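User: Can you predict the 3D structure for this chain?
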Amino acid sequence: MTTYKVLKGTNIQAVSSDPSNPIEGQVWYNTTDNVTKGQAATAAGSWASGGALNNGREQNTGLCVGTQTAGLLYGGDTPTPGGTVNTEQYDGSSWTEVNNMNTSRRSGGGYGTQSSAMSGASFAGNTGETNKTETWNGTNWTEVANLNTTRAGGAGAGTSDEGILFAGNNGSNDVAVNESYNGSSWTEITDLNTARNYLSGLGTTTSAIAFGGELAPSVTGVTELYNGSNWTEVADLNTARTRSGGAGTDSTSALAYGGGTPSATAVTELWNGSAWTETTDISSPRTSGGSSGTATAALYSGGNPGKVTTTEEFTGAGAGVTRTFTDS
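Assistant: Here is the predicted structure, written as structure tokens:
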């Protein structure tokens, strides 16, 4: 008779806590929970509730960076309109308030990680568009060199001290302007093909994607890829939208979720490098939330309507998940 050990090379172990990195097909007995568990692959993407923000807010598109378990959310519009300096970081289960920004802002562009982030291309408090930028070192925000083009509603891509901020509105018109930051100053480089506002963006300085946004008075599904030198228009989103969430590491794999059509939507789409495909919707339709993570492990926090504290976490198809065996 074929046994589990013959199939998997090990007996079913009795352990007091679940393995930290189980492989697909591994089975164990948890003596603390008194249940048998196993590791499986997720059949389809799914959204689940995460820890609530301490401060409900919206207009955080582009002002959330990091991963699903190490995110940073900053600025936005709280129930008291006009932008905020408040910054919170996420550990995978709860949000903690950390040091504030120097300048309150909303509807901004940003990029980076929980320990090294950039904030720029936004509205400053109750005033109009600003060219002020700040960097985060894991503890404090510091004002650095201003953008060359004052604007709000842009998007960004990059890691650590290098990145790009693109598009937005300068107070009069939507712009396609793209600027590169080298750790000390901003330089204008190749513009997008389509000027727009309130778009989403992610990736690196040599492999970025920009999608959606506003082309007043309508929304758009236009998608463009950046290779470090030029922008190329590719397949549009299936659902045109503005102020959506976006997650991914480069231009070959991305997730677009929520946003306005112009009404709030729950539609989620997956980018595979050449086309968008609809996948599992977020639980609550909303727009202007803060987003971070990858196409298979994304985070969406806050948003409108309601300037909520809601956080949702996405697990993509194929990702590992621990299942509990039952007798029913």
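The first strand starts at residue 13 and ends at 15. The mean pLDDT is 92.
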